[in-house]
Design brief:
InterPro entries: Bact_response_regulator (IPR050595), CheY-like_superfamily (IPR011006), Sig_transdc_resp-reg_receiver (IPR001789). 42% of the residues lie in helices and 19% in strands. The chain is of the alpha/beta class.
Amino acid sequence: MPKTIMIVDDSASLRQVVNIALTQAGYEVIEACDGQDALNRLDGRKVHLVISDVNMPVMDGITFVTELKKRAEYRFVPVIMLTTEAGEQKKLAGQAAGAKAWVVKPFQPATMLAAVAKLILP
């Protein structure tokens, strides 16, 4: 059974690029356009990994990760932040919220897939 990855980003084109890379690598993908949309889509189904942007309307990525980790069934789901933010403060905030990896845009799909492969639970 394929592993499920949630992509949370307000850019439809970026979600599409990530979705294609993940689908070709054999993953199942759920898309959300911001943190609130992502929380609404997490209806108890198993998600093996989350890839989230930081800067989004409605609910930003750091707040989303904080809220995600409050939910018992998603507390241990690894999160990769995929963002234009390269500043140390943002990285520390992401880490404090529970993000396990930080990939800066523009990114190479291979780099992202390598991070996914390292973090996804068997």
